[in-house]
Queue: 2 jobs
Job 1
Amino acid sequence: MEVKVKLFATLRDGRGKIVYIPFFDGITPAYILKHLNIRHEDVAILLVNGRDGEFEQKLLEEDYLSIFPPVGGG
Amino acid sequence: MYGYVGKILRVNLTDKVTTVEDLDEKLARKFIGGRGLATKMFADEVDPNINPFDEANKMIIATGPLTGTPTPTGGRYMVVTKSPLTGTIASSNSGGYWGPELKFAGYDMIILEGKSKEPCYLMIEDDKVEFRDASHVWGKVVSETTKQLETEAPEKSRILAIGPAGENLSKMAAIMNDYDRAAGRSGVGAVMGSKNLKAIVVRGSGKVEVADKEQLKAVVRDCNKKIRENGVTGQGLPAYGTAVLVNIINENGVFPTNNFQEAQFDKAEDTSGELLAEKYLVRKDPCYRCPIGCGRHCKVGDIEGGGPEYETIWAFGGDCGIDDLEEIIKANYWCNEMGIDTISVGATIACGMELYQKGYIKDADLDGVPLEFGNAKAIVEWTKRIGMREGLGDKMSEGSYRLADSYGVPELSMTVKKQEIPAYDPRAIQGQGLQYATSNRGGCHVRGYLISPEILGLPEKLDRFSLEGKAAWVKIFQDFTAFIDSSGLCLFTSFAMGAPDYAAMYNAVIGAEFDANDVLHAGDRIWNIERIFNLAAGVDPSQDTLPKRLLEDPIPSGPSKGNVARLSELLPEYYELRKWSTDGIPTDECKKELDL
C-alpha cells in the first residue's frame, strides 16, 4: 500500500505533482514531509482526505494528502 | 486638506453642465471615502426606490483618501449607484491606474447625473472638463474604444469605458479601466450605458498632499515589508495570481461544479493556476503602487490580455463542467472586451446549462451552440451573445435569476439578492455562507472573505464546518473590509496587514488619530448605511438567504459530502451582534452608537 501525496504550487518544484510513499503502520504527515524534504513552515495547508489534517496524526490505508505552501486568495 | 484633494466634480449629462464643489471634510472623515462616503452621499441624494435606469439615478465614482498616495496598493476607486441586477446599493471596486489619475486631476469623486441625449464621453484634464461626442466609439469593444480615445487625449491619460454590454444594458455589465481592470459586479456598466456615457478620460498634473511625510514613509516601509514577507502576498499571489485557488478550493471539496450540483471537479487540475503560470502567463500586470502584483497578462494564440482571475476560471470552468483552460482564457478576454462581469456571466451560462440539462431550454433556442455542461465551445460564443443580447443571450443578459425565473424555476439560479454567488460552496464553509447571505450587494466573496480564516488559515485557522464564533468573524470581516474599500487600498493587503496597520497609514496620510477599533467602528457605520439604503429600497431581510439547494441539498460527494449551509442557526446571532432587531433592522441603539 502507498499513501498518495498531492503537491501544489512551488512544492512541486523538483518533486512533481503526485508522489507515492510506501504505507506503514504509524506513518504520519510529518514523516512524509521529512521524507520529501519539506519544512513544516513551508506548509500552509495540510489536508488529509480533503479535510484539515495534523502533522502528527496517524494515517490509515487509503488516506491521501494535499499539501500547499502559503499561496493565495482571490 | 490632506489625503483628500478636496473637490467633487458634479456632471449633469442632461444639460451638459459641470460644477466643482468643495468636499465636506467632516463628512468625509466620518465615512472615510470611496465606498463609505459615496454611499452616504448617494443615499442622501437619490430616492432608494428609483428605477436604476431612470435618469434620476446617479452614479458616484469615488476614490479614497489613500488613493494616489505612496501607500501600498493605493490606487483603487469605487463605483456606487443603485444596481439594476440586485436593486440594492452597488459598489464595485477597481484597481489599475485610473483612480489615482482622477485625484491628480484634482477630484476626490465624480457625481454623474441625468442622461445624455446622444453617446458622449467626458474628457477631464485638470480643471478643464469637456463633453465629447462618442458616436464613433459607440458599439465598439473596450480595447478599440480605449485605443481610439487615447489618440484624442493628452499623453498618459487614463481611460475608463464601457463595452457593448453596458450600452446594451446587460444587468451584468462592468465598467472597465486601463483596458482590462474591472469594476465588475452588480451591473454598474449598464447604469453608465443608460446615461449614454461611453467613457471618462482623465489626465492630471497635481498630487495628493499628506499630513506627515516622514511618518508615512516609515509606515509604508513597515507595511511593504509585511507584504513582502507574507507567504500569500509575497510569494503565492505574485507567482500564481488568484488562480492558485483552483486546486486549493477543489481539494477541500468546495469547488462548485455544474452549477453547484457537485462540489468537486475531477478535471480542476487542467484549469489550475499552476498550469496557467506554466503555459499561458506572459507577464504580471500590477496595479498602481502594488507590491503584490497578482494581476495576470495571458496569451492564447492571438488572444492576449488581462486575467483570468480564480473566480473567472471557476465560473467558466468547474461551474460549467469545462476543463479547457484555453477556452476559459478566451471567454475571460471576451468579457473584458464586452465589458461584462466574468463571475455573473460564467455562472449564468452554468445556470443555462442546468436549464438545458433539465429540459427547460430547448435545442431550438440555442442556434447551434448547445448549452451542455462540458461543452467548451459554448462559453466564448454565449459570452458574446450575452454581451450583444443575441437570441437567448438577450434573456441571459438579465442574469441567472431572471433567466431561471422565466422558466418558473428561480431556485436553479445560484444567487443571493439576484447576484451570482462566487466560487466557494458555502455548504461546507459556514462563515462564508453567512457572509454571502448578508452581503449588502448580494452574492459576493469580497464583502468579507471568510475563505481567509476558514480555508487558508489567515489570520488563524478556523474549522470551516463549525458554527462557533462565525457570526462574530463575519461581522468583523465585513466591517474591516468596508473600511479598506473606503480607504482606497486593495483588500488583498489584508492577507498581510491588520487593522492597526491601516490605522497607521490613514493617520499619516490625513492626520487623524485612529486606532484599530476606530477602523472597525467606521466600517460598521458604512455597513449600516448600506443596509439602511437597501431596506428603504425594499430589499427586506427575508432576502438574507441562500439558494434552496445550498440550504437543503447536502453536497453529494467528495471531502465535504453531506453538508448543507446552516444559515438559520447563524443569522439570529449575527443580527444580535450587529445590534439589529430579531428581524434584521438596525435598532435605534445601533444607529446612535454609530452616529447615524
Job 2
Amino acid sequence: MKASLEWLNEYADIDVSAKELGDILTMTGSKVETIDDKSGEIKNVVVGKILEVKSHINADKLVVTKVDVGNGEVLQIITGASNIIVGTSGQIVPVAKPGSSLPGGKEIKTGKLRGIESCGMLCSMGELGIDPATYPDAEEDGIFILDSKYEKNIGEDIVDVLGLRESIIDFEITPNRPDCLSIEGLGRETAVSLNKPFKNPRKNLDEMKIENKKELEGLTVEISAPDLCYRYIARVVKNIKIGPSPEWMVRRLNACGVRSINNIVDITNYVMLELGQPMHAFDINSIDGKHINVRRAKANEEIITLDGQKRKLNENMLVIADSKKPVAIAGVMGGENSEIENDTKTIVFESAVFYGGSVRKTAKVVGLRTEASSRYEKGLAPENALRAVNRAVELIELLGAGEPVDGMVDVYPTKQKIVKIPLEVDRINRLLGINLSKEEMVTILNKLNIKVENDIVIPPFFRQDIEQTADVAEEVLRFYGYDKLETTLVSADTTLGGKNKKQTIEDNISDLLVHSGLSEIYTYGFVSENDLRKCNISKDSNYAKQAIKIINPLSEDYTMMKTTSVPSMMQMLENNNNYKNKNVKLFDISRIYKNINQNIEEGELPEEDTILTIGMYGEDIDFYILKGLVENVLNIVGVTKYDVVKETENDMYHPGRCANIKIGKDVIGTIGEVNPLLATNYDISQRVLFAEVNIDKIVKYARNVKKYTPIPKFPAVERDIAMIVDETVEVGQIQKIIEKKAKKLLEEAKLFDVYRSEKIGNDKKSIAYALKFRVPDRTLTDDEINVVMKEIIEELEKQLNAELRK
Amino acid sequence: MKEQIEKIRQSALEEIKNANDEKVLNDARVKYLGKKGELTLILRGMGGLSSEERPVIGSLVNEVRDEIENLIEERKKEFKVAEIKRKLETEKIDVTMPGKKIELGSVHPITQIINDIKEIFIGMGYQIADGPEVEFATYNFDKLNTPPDHPARDIQDTFYITDDIVLRSQTSPVQARVMETQKPPIKIICPGVVYRSDSVDATHSPVFHQIEGLVVDKNISMGDLKGTLEMFAKKCLGEKTQIRFRPHHFPFTEPSAEADVSCFVCGGKGCRVCKEEGWIELLGCGMVHPNVLRNCGIDPEIYSGFAFGMRNRKNSNGEIWNRRYAFII
C-alpha cells in the first residue's frame, strides 16, 4: 500500500522525514518496503515562458530559445527536444536555471553547446521524476509543456507550483490489517505512532444520516447469497458530467500508483484508497429490470470484464447480476456491459462487503487479482461500506460531477458483530513479560480507537482482527514498543535437551562416513516415471505400485514421491561423472515413502523410512571396500549380529555381486555393484558401488550396550590353516565352521589369502586363515589347541570337502 | 703380582681408550677378560698364593675386571651413539612433502548449519523432534489456525497427495503432534525438509529445510522468546549480535513478531549485505495462538508458549539461512 506524506498529513501532523516516519511505522507493525522521497531533490527549477525559438547555426537538431524566468530575467537555453519548434513561442515550461539540481543528483550549469552558450535546461517530465499519467494531456516525450494557467506562476519554484514535494512510502501490510490498506488506516497508525492527535478529517461520515429506501429511481437490490455477501448499499447520482478529475485528486491517485481515468472512476478509486472500501459504479440503464441481485453465478455463465476479457464463471462464484445477466464479478471486477460511457446520465454507486474467502478463490480461478479483490479477500468491515458510499457522493458534489439522489438502498442481512473482550491486565503482562498498569493499557487502546468500558475491551468496527486477549496484548505491545521488551530466559521446569536414539545414530553414521572419505548430498524426495524407467523398475513392481503421486506436481520430473533412493543417487553420480569427477564417494540420508497398504485415499499416511544410501565409483573401490564400510556403520551403531547373504534377484544390482544384510529374515540393507545395464542408462561405464541401509530398522536392532573387556593377561596362541576347496565354496561357510568348532577358545579367525592356480586345479581355490586362540583365565596348551584344530579340519573336510594343505 | 695386575690394567685401559671401532673393543675383551685372557690367567695362577694374599689379589683382579668391563661398555655406547648420529645425518627427509592421509568427506553445508543450531538448543534443554513429511492437512493447516479458505492452502502453494494429505509445507505440524502427545513443559526444535510449490530459481526451491522451535509451559512470556532468540543469535552469530523485534502477523502466533539481528558483516553500520539497514531479517516468531493450543489439547488459560521458525526466504541474507537447497544438483 502506497501512501504519500502529503495525504497522510491530512490525518496527523507529520513533523519527521519520510525515512524517520518509515522507521517509526516499521516498528509499530506497518513495515516499509520502499520510500520514494522526492522532496529536496529538485532545486532551483522554476516556471518559465518561451519568448522565441531560433535555429542553431551549428546544429540541425538543436534550437536556441529565449526564456522568461521571471523578475525580468531572460535566459538563453539550447534544447534538442522535438516539441520545441523554431518560430514558436509562448509555451510555459519548467526551467532548470544554472546551479539547479534534478532528481538523481544531476546538476545543471552554464555551458556551450556547439559553440553557443546555454544557461540552464528545459526539463521533461522524466527529468523531474513525474509520472506522465499525472498529466495525460501533456506530451510524454520532449519538454514538459505546462498548462497555460501556470503563466501567472512564472519565476516560481516548480516544486511548489506542481506540488512535487511528494514523498511516497510503500508499506507491506499484513493480511490481518485490511484497515491499513487505506490512507485513513495508515493515517491512524501514523498519528498513534507519532503520538499526535488523529485529525479525523472524515468524521462527518460517521454522523451522516441517509434514509434507507426500498428503491431509488426504480432500482431495487436483493442479496440471494447472504453467506457470501454481508452488505450491499447502492446510491444513485443523476445528471452525471463525465470529465477529468482535478489535479489534486489525480496527484493523490498517482501517488498511490493508480492512473486517472475520469472523474467518476477516479472517485471510486479515491474512496477505496482513502477508506479501504472498494467501490463500483454502474450505468443504471445497463441494469435490466433495474434490479440488482447478488447471487451465485450459474454454471457456464460468462461475462466480459472491464479489461475486455471473456471470463467463464462457475457456481462457486458470486456475481452482481441484473434480472437477466451478471454485470460484475463480485469484489473482483465490473462487467463491460454496465460500464460507464461518456453518454451515461445516471449512475449507481455500489459499496458492498463480500466474504473474503470466496472473493479470493474467485479471483484466483478467473486469474484476476485486483486492488478490490486483494482488499476483499482479507475480510472487510460491513460498517465501513456506508461511510464509503457517502464519501463517494460527497466527492461527486465537491467535484460538481452530478446530482445525488436522496436516500440509499442498504441491504444488510448480517449485522457486523461487536466483539467484547475482558481486559485481563495480569494475563497480558504475564504473556508479554512486561509490567503495565491498567491505565497505561487503556491509554494505548483508546488511542487506537479501542474502547474500554468497565474492564471490557470493545474494538472499533474496522478492527475485526481483534478477537481475544492475545490480540489485545499485541495492540498493547505494539505501542508499548516491541523494542522495549526485556529479554528474559525461560524460567520453566528444567528440561533435558538432547537427540533421540535415531537422531544420534544418524549423526554417528554421518560422522563415520565423512571420516571414511564420503561426502553428504541432499536429494529431492520426488521422482518421475522416467527415473523409474532408467532404474529398470517395471510398472508392476512394488517400487512403482507403492509410489504416492502428487496431484499438482511442479513438472514431469517431480510427479511422485520416491520409494527407492536409487534414482536420485544415480542422478548425482551421473552429474559427477559428466563433470569428469574421479573417485566419487557420496552418501545421503533421506526418506522414502511407501503406500504399502494402498490406503492413502482412505486417509492413511504412507510409511516413511529413513534410508542411508551410499553411491561410489572410481579407483580402489570394490564390493569388499563397500562391505567393510557398511559393516563399520553397523558396528558403530551397535548392530553386531547379522548375515550377509547373496542376492541374485534384485534387478538394480549385478546378479553376481549383490548381497542383502539380514537379521533373521528381515532385510535391513542391500549392498552391491549397480547392474551395468542400469549404470549405462546414466552414461556411467565404470563399476558403481551402491548400498541402501534402512536406518529405522537399524534403530530397532541397535543395542548400544557398552561392555568392558579387560586387557588380556595371557598370551594368544596362533595357528594358520590353509586348504583347497571347490570354487563354489563361500568363505563365509569356512568361517562359520571355524567359529562353531573353535567355540570359546577362538579370539579371531582372519582370512589372509585366497589363491588360485592351474596347479591346484581350475575349479579350485586355496583359502588360508590365521586363527588366534586365547582365553581370559589361563595360557592355552598346545594339546588343547590341537584337539580343536583337529575338529575344525575334520569338519571342513566333511562338510566342504576341503583338502588341507601342509 | 700387584704390579703385574696394575700393568695389565694400564695397558688394557690404554687399548680400550684408544680403540676406534667395536672390533678393537671385542679383541681387548678377549685379550684381557677372555678364557685365556691375561687377567683370567692371573686368577688361575692364584693357587700359589698364601691364604692372606689370595683374597686381596682376588678382589683386586675383580676390581680391575669391572673397571675394564665398564670402560668397554662405555666405549661401546659411545660408538653406538656416534653410529646413530652418523645415520641421522643420512636419514634426512623433506618434511614439506605432502602427508599421507585418508581423504575426508564432508557433510552438506545445510547439515552443518542445522547441527550448529541443534547444539545450541540442546544446550538450552531442547529436544529434537521429528514428524512425517507426508502429512495430514489437519496438522499442516487446521490445527495451526489456518482455516480451509486461507491462502496458504492454495494448490498453487502446497503439494497435495489427496484432498486431506499434503507434503508438509512447514515443520509446524511437528509442533502440533508434539503438543498432542506430550504434556508441558515442552521445549523442542524440529529441523526438517518441507515442500512448497515453488519453481527452482536463485532463491527458491520446491524442497528446503526449516527449523522450528516451540516452548510451552506455565508463564512463558514474549520476553522469554526474545531472550531465547537473543541467546541463540549471540551463540550462532557472535556475542556482539543484537536482536530486534518488529510487529508482524502469522496465523499461528499472537502477538507475532519478526526478529532481526544486527548485521554481522558491518555490525549494524549499514552495508551491502544488510542493504544499508544495519539489520537482517532472521526469523518469524510469536506467542503460540490460543486457538492453536486449544486445537492441540492444551488449555490456553493455564499454559502459554512461544514458537519461532527459520526458513528459506527471498530477502533474508545468504549466509545464515538462504542457501539454495539444491546447489549440488
